[in-house]
Amino acid sequence: MTDQYVWRKSSRSQNLQTCVELSSPLGLIRDSKDPEGPRLDVDVAVFLRAVKAGRFER
Question: Which Pfam families match (predicted)?
Fold first, then answer.
């Protein structure tokens, strides 16, 4: 599958495959362990506000 997006992940993840990746152009999120798997289509600004607000904390 040819991917039309450039995927980025946090530099803090180093070379581990245990993180999420964001697409450029922005709007998609995927699991780095399963790059061909499902992707979330999100409003990035809303998603980042939720992350910063701690809404995904366990």
Answer: DUF397
